[in-house]
Amino acid sequence: MRQSYVAGNWKMHKTIAEAVSLANELAEGLKRSPNKLMVAPPFTALSAVGPAIAAGGILLGAQNMASELEGAHTGEISVRMLKDLGVRVAIIGHSERRHVYNESDELINQKVQLALTEGMEVILCVGETLDEREAGDVERVVGTQLRAGLSGVENVSLDQVTIAYEPVWAIGTGKTATPEDADAVHRYIRGWFAETYESDAAENIIVQYGGSVKPDNIAALMKMENIDGALVGGASLKAETFLPICRFND
Ligand code: PEP
User: Fold this and answer.
1) Ligand 1 centre and the CA of 182: distance in Å?
2) Staple 120 to which of 66, 115, 148, 180, CB 3.0 to 4.6 Å?
């Protein structure tokens, strides 16, 4: 039985004081949750948010990390610096990193491999653009992102890996994939794991949906057989919208 996993990506929002205030509200509201929960504040708020969310059993996440361990990489943040701050999970390959900052599958794979080697969990994001969906290319695109992103990753490391299926056209747009359409892609992802890894991999891998998840659509999404959780952007920025999403099964 896979544990439900809800993660919030705060992107480039919130000062330290604002982040701590939200973290305190979440920790208070989610103390007894049966679900796995994570929030990824901006880097500047990680050290302040970590202790605040610990009381609620919420994991500290990073929105990105460097592909190299250390060195002359101005402006980058390394996996060991993140671990120093108590970060347990790194979001890798978010569509904004792929499409706005031109991160390649090869770079994303370097980050995934480094994170896993260093004992960090990852949420690897995959998903198609609207043009790719309209061209009937969803499975090819998602399959390529999985194959490339997880290249070199062994079966034994899969318990550190979560997949987030995030159709690019649904992120921050208010458009959500129907639960049935999302579930079809999640089923494809599970099938890909069955073909690529040992037999229990497909059953155990957690696949989140992301793309305009809100309190009023989470229940319908979570009813689907292959949807195990959500990666939430906009609605994770306020306790009044993130708490009901995290508590979808109360
Ligand atoms: C995201 O940033 O991963 C995301 C899904 O954003 P939103 O929920 O705002 O669509």
Assistant:
1) 15
2) 115
Which atom of ligand 1 lies nearest, measured to the CA of 213?
A: 8
DSSP, residue by residue, 209-241: E-SS--TTTHHHHHTSTT--EEEESGGGSSHHH
Domains in the chain (CATH in brackets) are 5-246 (3.20.20.70)
DSSP state of 203: H
Query: Which pLDDT tens digits describe the chain residue by residue (250 residues)?
Result: 899 999 999 999 999 999 999 999 999 999 989 999 999 999 999 999 999 999 889 999 999 999 999 999 999 999 999 999 999 999 999 999 999 999 999 999 999 999 999 999 999 999 999 999 999 999 999 999 999 999 999 999 999 999 999 999 999 888 888 999 999 999 999 999 999 999 899 999 999 999 999 999 999 999 999 999 999 999 999 999 999 999 999 9
For residue 211 and ligand 1, the question of a CB distance below 6 A is answered with yes
- Token pair of 5 as six digits: 């996993």
Residue 125 zone, left/alpha/beta (φ > 0; ψ -120 to 50; rest) = beta
Ligand 1: does its nearest atom lie under 6 Å from the Cβ of 172? Answer: yes
Number of H helices, E strands in the chain: 11, 8
